[in-house]
Every structure is written in structure tokens, then in C-alpha cells.
Write a structure and sequence with these properties.
The protein is mostly beta strands. The chain contains 2 helices and 32 strands. The relative contact order is 0.15.
Length: 403
């Protein structure tokens, strides 16, 4: 389940009025107790904190109904939960990282005891700060605050909801939160989108007819609204790179989804892998390589990689049952996401730039039918996401490759 699928899960939550939640901070994040691996831990980049459990290089390939690719050769996991995060087996979204920056800072959302979602940021040293948008209201089972992206400097964007509607926000590295709405927006809500190094934000807003449009917001607060060519029923940006290029998907008049690329000059290009009946471009790297998911006529989901020149390569994780869903791509072209194995369960994967695959599950996940969802990857190859343990409780994780 990539970020878009996680958004679908969150999207079933209804927001209605309640009291605002105040930001709080702790310097002692809650960590699951795992065996300490001092030798490996001393090699973690960026001062990453937390207990870890080493996975030795050369771990044998796990045999399923079909062979999976090599698993976890040389990776270390840091598992964490946000203080105050509470969830039940029926609501596993208690700590859900969605994005990671170059230095290993992670943002996402967590659920309180009433299943209301709030934002958090975790520094590379392990300090976790929770926050909500200005005047956010948090009734039971609501989306109070939902981050979608974090940039190099640590600025975070996403949306939050008050008692009437929803608004976008940008949280400065120092913690100041600024609310915003594009002109003509009656409902600014974007479960996908992002913020680049320059502070340019992309996301979605809805007009008075509740038609979805894409937007760009500059650091100075200026807005540009856009719609993909051929769109009739909505445009949804999913990511932006440091060059200012935006990707996403849009619905045509038949409610068929197609991918799009918006260049810095505003030129829009639409695309689909051959044979696709549904396309979602989910991420773009600084070199213009795009990854996402497409569906064939038999309703199987596959991954794709589109080069800057427009060549599209489709792929499936070996051992998958027809559901491979990429979520993020790093500058070198490594792709992460999740897939469903023939034997069952959701698992994470990394597709290296040479096309080789590694599959993974955090150490606390439920084997063999794991539930692992990888949502972000940074230039150092660190991956963040969340998993569900055998009690069906969710946890955040960092997966750190050790060379």
C-alpha cells in the first residue's frame, strides 16, 4: 500500500467539529525494545537513534510459493511509536510515517485514543514533536492534521481540518505553522503532494462544485492553479521534485485515471503504460524519472518507471500475486513501495537502479503474512513507512542499508 492507498484508508474517516489539539514535544520518543546492536548502530548515518536489530549480510532468500528476491542483506531497522499514539486492532494507523528527507527527518501522522489523526516530525536523533494546524478540530475518527511531505530544510506541508472545512499548511523548521487556501478553494485537502527544496508546495483543492484542481504555492504565498490536459473530473498532484516538476494523476470524462507530468514552464504531458486502464504517477526524482502504478485489463497492479525522455519500463516484484505498488524514488533511481506476495501479506521492496529487487519486512512485523508499507526513500537509501505487528497494531520504522 503506497501513500495513495494509505490515503484511501484515511479517506474513509469523517471529520466533524471538536476541540483544537495543542502541539506537544518530548525528547524521549517511545521505542520498541529490541536487542541493541552496538557495532551496527555505530555505523548508522546522521546520528539515527533507536534500538535496532541487525540482519546479517547474505540472509538466505525466503522460499514462498514463488521465490522472492534477496531479503534484507545488511539492513538495520529503527522502530518507533509517537508518544500519545494509541490504536486498536480495528484501527492500525497509530504511527504512520509518510516522508523522509536527506538527513533522516521523518514526518507523518498518528492516531490518538479517539482515532483522530495528528501530525508529527521525528528528528534524526529521535526527538519527536507532535503538532496540529491552527484551529484544528479533532472529533472522534477524524483527520485533524495530515502531513504529506518534508523538504531538505525540514519544512513540512499537508492539510488540517477545522470545524467547517479543511486547509493547507506549511510548518517551518522552527515550528511556526502557516495555514493557506488557494483562491476559489472551498476545501483544501491533499493526501498526496509535497514540498521541494525551494519551499514550493503542490497539492489539491476543491472548488465550489467540488471539482479537484492541482495547485502550486510559492514560499511567498503566491498560487498557480492547474488541470491536466483532458481532465474532466479532477486533477491530483502526488509529488514535486527540486526542479519544480510535478507529477500526479487525473480523471477523464469516463473516470479513467491517467498519469501526468507538469514541467516548470507549465507544459503538461499525459501518459499511460501500454495496456493501462488505470495509471497513477506517484513520485518524481530530481532527474525527472517518474514511478507509479498501473492496472491492466485483468485488474492486476504493476509498477512502472518513466524516464525523462518518456520511455516507460513496467515491472513486478518477483513472487508478487499481481499487486506491485511503487511509492517513492530516490535521485539515483532506486524505487521503494510494497507488494502482495503469492503466499499472502504486504511486504516492502526496493528496486535498485539496475532493476534488481530486495524485499523486506521490519523485525517486529507479523510473519509470514506481514503488513509492511514503505512510503518514502531518501538519497542515502533510508526508507520510512509503517508495519502492523502480530497484534495488528501499527508502528513506524526506518530501514537503513548498511553497506
Amino acid at each position: 500500500m503506497d501513500t495513495k492507498l494509505a490515503a484511501r484508508a484515511v479517506g474513509v474517516l469523517l471529520w466533524v467539529g471538536c476541540l483544537p489539539a495543542n502541539a506537544q514535544q518530548t525528547a524521549a520518543p517511545s521505542q520498541r525494545t529490541l536487542p541493541q546492536c552496538s557495532i551496527q548502530a555505530s555505523r548508522l548515518p546522521g546520528g539515527i537513534a533507536g534500538h535496532c536489530k541487525p540482519v546479517l549480510a547474505g540472509t538466505p532468500t525466503q522460499q514462498l510459493l514463488n521465490d522472492l528476491p534477496r531479503r534484507d542483506d545488511g539492513a538495520v531497522y529503527v522502530e518507533f511509536v509517537v508518544p500519545g499514539s494509541t490504536c486498536e486492532a480495528s484501527f492500525a494507523l497509530c504511527t504512520t510515517p509518510v516522508a523522509i528527507n536527506l538527513f533522516g527527518a521523518v514526518t507523518g501522522y498518528y492516531a490518538d485514543a479517539n482515532a483522530a489523526l495528528h501530525g508529527f516530525v521525528r528528528t534524526p536523533s529521535g526527538t519527536i514533536t507532535t503538532f496540529d494546524g491552527p484551529d484544528a478540530t479533532c472529533p472522534n475518527a477524524s483527520v485533524c492534521t495530515s502531513p504529506v511531505g518534508i523538504n531538505l530544510q525540514g519544512a513540512i506541508t499537508g492539510f488540517y481540518c477545522d470545524a467547517v472545512t479543511c486547509h493547507g499548511f506549511v510548518r517551518a523548521p522552527g515550528g511556526t505553522i502557516t495555514a493557506f487556501d488557494p483562491p476559489e478553494s472551498v476545501f483544501t485537502q491533499f493526501f498526496t503532494g509535497g514540498i521541494n527544496r525551494a519551499g514550493v508546495i503542490t497539492g489539491t483543492y476543491y472548488d465550489a462544485n467540488y471539482l479537484a484542481h492541482g495547485f502550486l504555492r510559492t514560499p511567498g504565498g503566491s498560487f498557480t492553479s492547474f488541470d491536466a490536459l483532458g481532465t474532466v473530473n479532477g486533477t491530483v498532484p502526488t509529488g514535486i521534485n527540486d526542479a519544480g516538476e510535478v507529477v500526479g494523476w487525473y480523471y477523464d470524462s469516463n473516470f479513467v485515471s491517467h498519469g501526468f507530468l507538469r514541467a516548470l514552464d507549465g507544459t503538461l504531458t499525459t501518459f499511460d503504460p501500454k495496456g493501462s486502464i488505470y495509471t497513477s504517477a506517484n513520485a518524481i526524482n530530481v532527474n525527472g524519472a517518474i514511478t507509479g502504478v498501473w492496472q491492466d485489463a485483468s485488474f492486476a497492479f504493476h509498477g512502472f518507471l518513466r524516464s525523462r525522455e518518456g520511455a516507460i519500463t513496467t515491472f513486478d516484484v518477483p513472487g508478487s500475486n499481481g499487486e506491485t505498488e511503487p511509492s517513492a524514488i530516490d535521485p539515483a533511481g532506486a524505487i521503494t513501495g510494497n507488494f502482495v506476495a503469492v503466499s499472502g501479506g504486504f511486504h516492502g521492496f526496493v528496486r535498485a537502479s539496475d532493476g534488481t529487487f530486495t524485499t523486506f519486512d521490519p523485525t517486529g512485523s507479523a510473519e509470514p503474512s506481514s503488513y509492511t508499507f514503505a512510503n518514502g526513500i531518501n538519497p542515502a537509501g533510508m526508507i520510512t513507512g509503517w508495519y502492523i505487528d502480530p497484534s495488528f497494531i501499527g508502528h513506524g520504522f526506518l530501514r537503513i542499508p548498511i553497506q
